[in-house]
Every structure is written in structure tokens, then in C-alpha cells.
UniProtKB/TrEMBL annotation:
Domain Response regulatory: 19-138
Segments forming domain HTH luxR-type: 165-230
Annotated SUPFAM superfamilies: C-terminal effector domain of the bipartite response regulators, CheY-like
Organism per entry: Iodobacter fluviatilis
A Pfam cross-reference name: Response_reg
Signal peptide: none
Residue(s) carrying 4-aspartylphosphate: D70
Name used for this protein in its record: DNA-binding response regulator
GO molecular function list: DNA binding
GO biological process, one term: regulation of DNA-templated transcription
InterPro entries reported in the protein's UniProt record: CheY-like_superfamily (IPR011006), NreC/VraR/RcsB-like_REC (IPR058245), Sig_transdc_resp-reg_C-effctor (IPR016032), Sig_transdc_resp-reg_receiver (IPR001789), Tscrpt_reg_LuxR_C (IPR000792), WalR-like (IPR039420), WH-like_DNA-bd_sf (IPR036388)
Length: 230
């Protein structure tokens, strides 16, 4: 039996904050991400880097749990995003990498996802406001792909690679994309309804419409269609 003083001590003991580093050579992106995350009590912004070389230097001396990293940097001779991701993964395998990129190309997305990064967000998707949720997901061992990218990759897969390579050319509505993304993360219809504050009936209908547009007739086919994207 714990004494009262011991209970108070345990209750006062907070979990260590998730240490986040931002790596992007665009100051406005760093500013925007910082503003979104700075007041999230579970997170701590441990630093930022504007080049791959400065990022590697920062990681040598700074603890990092989640890295929000651009795919490429505008620095001569050192802008290979894939090589940078591989290097970070080899040196710091515990770090969860979420790639933020302006490259809205299916081929590039597939190349990045082949490295088994924890998350992928196209800057064109406008998903920055949801970063706290994304970080919480990857911290729990889940993967995340923004709705626009997920939809484009799914259509690309269903069309055997013959679909559009432009992530902006999507067939699903924003809410259908959201339902599909959350379903792909492992949520049930009821959990999605609770998370989005919509009714179970509405979520079921949006899921059904998304499946119709993707050309799949059941959950097994839907899961098969998105398998390998995470």
C-alpha cells in the first residue's frame, strides 16, 4: 500500500515530453510548424536546422524523438533527401521521421515511403494544424500519410501504376479522404465518428462512397488496396 506522500509524488511525476526537431530550409515553414507545436504541453521543440549538415550536427548533441524533415535542401552538392533519411535512420534508429515535402509527385512519395519513414505530409495538403495528432500517432508506432497523398497513392496502386502522378488530382472529397486515412490507421467506424464528432451513420456513408470511388466492394479489398503504403 502506497502512503499518501508517495501517491502525491507519483501523481506529480509527469511523463517526459516528446523531443521534436524541425529540419527545413524555408523559414516560413519552420515558423508555421513552431507556432502549431509550441503550446502543446506533451511536446518540446528541441531545435531546428536549415540544412542537412546542420541537422546532423544538431542530432549529435540534442535528444530527438520525432524529426520533422524536408525531403531536400537548397544547398549545393548536399541535397539528396533519400540519402539524408537513410543516414539519420542508420545513426539514430529510434527517431521517428515525418517527411514534410513540397514534392507532389507519386514517384517521389513512393521512394520516400519505401524507406519506412513514420510519416509523410505534402506541404500542399495543408495538414500542419494537425501535426500534434500526427506526432502522437507515430509515437504510438502508427504510420501517417496525409489524405491527398494517400488518395493519390491508392488510385495509383489500383490503376497498376497508370494513374495520375499529381497528388492534387484526387477523386475523393476532403471528408472521404479523412475517413479513409483514419480507417487506414486502424480506427473503427465508431472511433472515427467519435474522433471527427460526426455520427456513425455519416461516417459509414462516407466510407462507402470512398470505397465506390476507389472501385473496391468490401473491407478486405480496401485493406488490400492500401496495403504497403504504410
Amino acid at each position: 500500500m502506497l502512503k499518501g506522500s508517495e501517491l502525491m509524488r507519483l501523481k506529480g511525476h509527469s511523463q517526459p515530453k516528446c523531443q521534436v526537431i524541425i529540419a527545413d530550409d524555408h523559414p516560413l515553414i519552420v515558423f508555421a510548424v513552431t507556432k502549431v507545436l509550441e503550446n502543446v504541453k506533451e511536446l518540446r521543440l528541441a531545435g531546428s536546422a536549415s540544412s542537412s549538415s546542420s541537422l546532423l550536427q544538431l542530432l549529435q548533441k540534442t535528444s530527438c524523438d520525432v524529426l520533422l524533415c524536408d525531403y531536400s535542401f537548397d544547398e549545393g552538392g548536399d541535397s539528396d533527401g533519400l540519402q539524408l533519411i537513410k543516414q539519420v535512420q542508420e545513426l539514430y534508429p529510434h527517431i521517428k521521421i515525418i517527411v514534410l515535402t513540397a514534392h507532389d509527385d507519386v514517384v517521389i512519395a513512393l521512394r520516400i515511403l519505401s524507406l519506412k519513414v513514420a510519416g509523410f505530409i505534402s506541404k500542399a495538403s495543408g495538414e500542419f494544424s494537425g501535426l500534434p495528432f500526427v506526432i502522437s500517432q507515430v509515437q504510438m508506432g502508427r504510420s501517417y500519410i496525409d489524405p491527398i497523398t494517400l488518395n493519390a497513392l491508392t488510385l495509383h496502386r489500383l490503376n497498376n501504376g497508370k494513374g495520375s502522378d499529381n497528388l492534387a488530382e484526387v477523386a475523393l472529397s476532403e471528408r472521404e479522404q479523412e475517413v479513409l486515412r483514419l480507417f487506414a490507421l486502424g480506427m473503427t467506424v465508431s472511433e472515427i465518428a467519435l474522433h471527427t464528432q460526426r455520427s456513425v451513420k455519416t461516417i459509414s456513408a462516407q466510407k462507402k462512397k470512398a470505397m465506390d470511388k476507389l472501385g473496391v466492394s468490401n473491407v478486405v479489398e480496401l485493406l488490400e488496396a492500401i496495403k504497403g503504403l504504410f
